[in-house]
Each structure stands twice: as structure tokens, then as C-alpha cells.
TrEMBL record:
This is Endonuclease/exonuclease/phosphatase domain-containing protein. It comes from the Eukaryota.
């Protein structure tokens, strides 16, 4: 009968695609209450979950506690929500050092008065600098691929205009500006993606 019951249980677990839940606490969950050679300790209790449960509560954990009112361990199942997504780490972009206004941003951040010991002041100023850089320069890399494509199209359009009007100095000046803008954005984009690929 026992083997038959275990077979039915195994079939049910397999059919339901059950997965053993993560567990802590006592390993042996049942005690026959006898002494000496008659003592029997067994692992009779489990906590199973399916894909849906483990997706909804990926950090769920079963705790097998010491026996009190029963010969079986009390089981406490903790259903914790998924951990909050960690805030992205700040990444200093090398291309910022080539941006217009970079040195002014650094000087402004370093000029802020902070209190504390030397190490505390240093970390505080670095934190301030991080905020300044994100506020003043991070927009330079926002949607940079799209901006490169737009600059390329603009430059190509002006080249066609210049081809139709080769003596127009205004168009010639715009073509030079568009060329510089496109090449600058292309260099920034290459530096940005190259550095990001190494992180």
C-alpha cells in the first residue's frame, strides 16, 4: 500500500510539473517519539511549487521548524515578492572629457563646500560630481544612434544642395558645419558603444 501510495504521489508531482521549493531548517521532519534503538527520524515532508508559483515568488522559501504539537515539523512558507530591480550603476563615460563644458562642470562640483574628514569630503565631492555630470552631460549620449543617423541624413541633404549650387557660400558653410556635427557624433557614438561593450 505504501509503495502504491508513493507511486500515485510521484505521478501527481510529475503531472503537475512540481518543483521542490527552496528550504531551510530541519532536514528530518518526522520523529516517531521513541527512544534508543527504536528512534526513527525521517524526511517525510516537502514543499513543492510549480512554474507559476516560482515565477510569481522567485525568492519563496520553506522553513522546517522544530516539532511542537505534532510529530511532524511545522512548515512556514514565506512568499516574498521579486527583488526590486537594482538601480543602474553610475558609469563614467570617457567621451565626456572631450565634451565642451566638461572642465567647467568638474570645477563647479569641486568648488562645493563639504564638511568632514578628508576621505568623507572626497567621497562627498565625487558624489556631487556624479550628479553634475549626469545633469549636464548625460543628454549628449541619449538616443545617440538616432542622432547620428539624423546628422548623416542632414549632411547628405546639404551635400546635394551644394552640388546644385556650388558657388553658394551659405550652403558651403552649412555643409562644413553638418560634416563636423556628423563626424563628432559618430566619434562619440563609437566611443560610447566601445566602452559600454567592455562593462
Amino acid at each position: 500500500m505504501l509503495s502504491q501510495a508513493l507511486g500515485i504521489e510521484a505521478e501527481g508531482i510529475s503531472a503537475g510539473e512540481a518543483i521542490p521549493n527552496s528550504a531551510i531548517g530541519l532536514h528530518f521532519t518526522w520523529d516517531n517519539g521513541q527512544h534508543g534503538e527504536n528512534t526513527i527520524l525521517k524526511k517525510l515532508d516537502w514543499v513543492w511549487g510549480n512554474h507559476q508559483l516560482l515565477t510569481a515568488w522567485p525568492t519563496s522559501k520553506a522553513q522546517f521548524q522544530a516539532r511542537l504539537a505534532s510529530d511532524h515539523s511545522t512548515i512556514v512558507l514565506t512568499l516574498a515578492p521579486p527583488p526590486l530591480r537594482q538601480k543602474a550603476r553610475f558609469k563614467f563615460l570617457n567621451l565626456w572629457t572631450q565634451q565642451e563644458g566638461y572642465e567647467e562642470v568638474v570645477r563647479a562640483a569641486w568648488a562645493v563646500e563639504v564638511n568632514g574628514n578628508p576621505i568623507s569630503r572626497l567621497t562627498s565631492k565625487l558624489r556631487i560630481l556624479k550628479g553634475y555630470l549626469k545633469a549636464k552631460l548625460s543628454h549628449r549620449t541619449h538616443d545617440i544612434s538616432h542622432r547620428v543617423n539624423m546628422a548623416k541624413e542632414d549632411w547628405q541633404t546639404i551635400q546635394h544642395q551644394l552640388n546644385m549650387n556650388p558657388n553658394d557660400q551659405n550652403i558651403r558653410s552649412r555643409e562644413r558645419e553638418a560634416c563636423y556635427h556628423y563626424n563628432k557624433l559618430s566619434t562619440d557614438a563609437e566611443s560610447f558603444f566601445k566602452q559600454r561593450s567592455r562593462v
